[in-house]
Amino acid sequence: MSKLAHLQRPNRPLMIYAIVYLAFLYLPVALLPMFSFNDSIYIRFPLEGFTTKWYAEMFGDRQMHAALRNSIQVGVIASVTATILGIFGAKAVTRFRIKGVKPVLGVIMLPLVIPPIIMGVALLILLTQADIKLSLWTVTMGHILICVPFSIVTLMASFEGFDKSMEEAAADLGDNAWWTFWRVTFPMVFPGILASLLLCFTISFDEFIMAFFLAGTEQTLPIFIYSQLRFPQKLPGVLALGACIITVTFVVVFLAQWLRGRSFGTPQAGGE
Amino acid sequence: MKIKDKVKAYGQGELSRRDMLSAMAAVGVTVAMVPAAPRSAKAAGSDATYFTWGGYDIPELFQPYIAKHGEPPSFSTFGGSEEGLTKMRAGFVADVAHPCNQAVPRWVATGLFQPVDPAKLSNWENVIPSLYQLEGNMEDGRPYMVPMEWGQTSVTYRTDLISPEEESWDILWNPEHEGRLGVIASAGDTWWCAAIKAGVPFEEIATEENFQKVAAVLREQRPLIRTYTDDMTTLEQALASGELVAAMTWNESAVKLRGEGVPVKFADPKEGALTWVCGAMMHKDADVDLAHDIIDSLISVESGTFLIGDYGYGSSNAKAFEQFSEEQLANLGLSSNPTDVLKAGKFQIPQSQEFETKMNQEFENIKAGF
Amino acid sequence: MRPARLSRRPAAPVGALLRLSDQGEDHVAQSATLGDRPAASASPATRRSLATRFRRSDSLRGYALLSPTLLVMAIAMCAPTAMMVALSFWVQSGFDITATFTLQNYEQVFSNPIFEALFLRTIAISGTCAVATVLIAYPMAYYVAFHVKKNKLVWVILMTLPFWTSYLLRVFAWKVVLGYNGAINSGLMSLGLISEPLEFLLYSPEAVVITLAHAWAAFAILPIYVSLEKIDRSLLEAASDLGDGPVARFFRVTLPLSAPGVIAALFLIFIPTFGDFVTPALVGGPDGLMLANIVQKMFGKLNNWPLGSALAIAMMAIVTILCVSLIWLSRKAQERMI
Hints:
Number of helices of chain C: 15
Strand order of the largest sheet of chain C: 1-2
Shape of chain B: globular
Strand content of chain B: 15-25%
Helix content of chain B: 40-55%
Oligomer: heterotrimer
Number of strands of chain B: 14
Order of helices and strands of chain C: HHHHEEHHHHHHHHHHH
């Protein structure tokens, strides 16, 4: 394979580029924790001394707690529902030769190609015309909509990588469809399900645009953050919150990715 | 099995059914618990909502309320009173909202609000009468809007970066400061300040000729503006960093910046600053008792003291002024005789909904560059 | 020997089942159809044949399983869109909507110079952002696909992790970086490269492009990486066997084969950025406003839902036309290459 040897030689400029690129990706994100320890309510250079009072303030902020709680609720319900719908969809598409599978998948994947503002606005119109009051439930509905495509893509990868004959064997030995699923399929695709849950939760947790249009009196965390970008006093507290969220999200997403990657032995990168 | 091994096993599909079931059960229980948790944690105090401008959703304004209920009300914010009204007309219910005098007749006309009962307000006797005896505000001796604070929209400028010969609205129209000026994105403030600059008397602001005059003045200003924003944060931070040399703000921005050590001054323009009085209105579907408690807190001496000392606004509570010396008040641009300042101010005059819509639309056009 | 259908528990434990993977296709096909014969209750001949037809048809069973998802998505997508279309033909004055058919909203959309200018600006910003992001992401994806041997998964995760942090806070972080006394300006000034801070960095369309490019870089790199990863290395070997140098090989083999990923990435960036109002609102300044800002205002303080709907539909149409043209163009280009 000597012809490809030059590909295997370390390519210095490219490596430097890769590092610079990663720096470009991470540096702005790193600024937030930095200013969350800064002793000034104004976000500007030069820095003015170290303090943890913003963290203390954040931990005591009731409004933030309520928003966080709301976001977690919405995230859990949306991710579980989207994953269940995704399981149905992925199993159906991978196990059965469905006529017209491409248009059907097209419909299901539609939310991926529509700008969120349009979906949010359209749902808002429908809800107000139907006299349905805006609330966390309407936000959840919107989030389920955008999570299902992600869920299906993630789960399709899981279902496809799994030997169908095992299900047939179970059926052959006396299991009906439900038990086949529960005792054979489910354990095998569990990493995929877990990844889908984590992915959908993360999407819902950070989703702002649709929540902005569909929320009622109760706020989700991104709505809270957006409203806090208007307050001088609370801004560093928001950055403290952001730093915490970043840390938790990093851990969660790292876990999800790693699980998916480990379940196939090769790094899986598609499907987000 | 250690967690790490368990996770590895998940990844390789080798985990036993029992472990998986227990994991799902844990998830299921958590999901079921989560909705229940906040319901049990909610106390009566935060059941009421206060819908207000940014900067007013703070516990400092609710010390009596907190003393009575243990916690402040829930807060929700709007960027401008038009935005707030639109949201409420779309069905959002807030027990107490915070409009300003210019918007009151329009708000009342929506039928979404009910008059407040002064008998239920322990601090009512200290409220300055000229602030609530406004046209269209009183019904059978009961006010729709209980005044809370009064203040001005004027120019906050960096004294170390520019030295204007005289304090005037011209600062925000000075081509020398091109790209270093900021104004409020909401027409409710900016249009009226432009009217002052254009020399249009407020009584005649709705005539077609004057409408075009103000629009022209705003167009003239647009190339000089670095940012139009409803965020006081943005303007204050930009002034603090020197990105802006002057901006259209309310009193509190200048007071806060000075408190942080930034050399600014809240101008007293020769043409006059835009003056307003804002207060609390009660929604028709509000929890009446909690709403009155909110309003009572807002007009209390404690809140008044905070508004004067920390934000530089005039409180509607006459007793609050007694907490400060003449010198302190003068430093803040206030006086212990609020009526004098109010008489000299240029108060906005309520307009029709048609005018509001037209004004907002035109201002959006101007901001977009047309 | 067929085991009893009515039994709910299999005789063998799960572990044994997992070892039965070499059952073979025929047996599998057989048991698939036979294994679902209805239980012992008597049913009329017609019903059995329908049921059997249902059970034998892969497609129908597939749809049955798919139906909850499909129904939910179809209704949730169609009903709101239909409502929005209807609303776009109505008029709103103050707070009352008159439900009579009229084209005046669309007339406004097409005749008002503001909207036209905003459309063009939005297309320009989104397009620039998409192209720029793909250009800077490609070498990174190339590096990880071809030059990273160990811990590829870690690199992939590192590449995509920033995408999962709060979008709002990332935009705000750029405000800090690009600001007047922000990281870039104070850095350049302390290095003595500039004497006055650069003003165009913030509150301009450029700021919007930079912020959006950063926000979506982590997301868009994935399709590119996947398509690069999938390239059969033996093709590259064949190309160099046939005499291509590394540069030629890149342009003749790697680039065309990674084209689907690049196109997918362009879509993945263009579509959401076209409809973004947060970034322009926070860093765009007066000149950086995009279409979505006006749509958001229509549903907010400007309170003109029908006009907002008409604008939204026009946005949808434009995005669809642009995407379809891009797909068509890329097909043509691929045909020509092959």
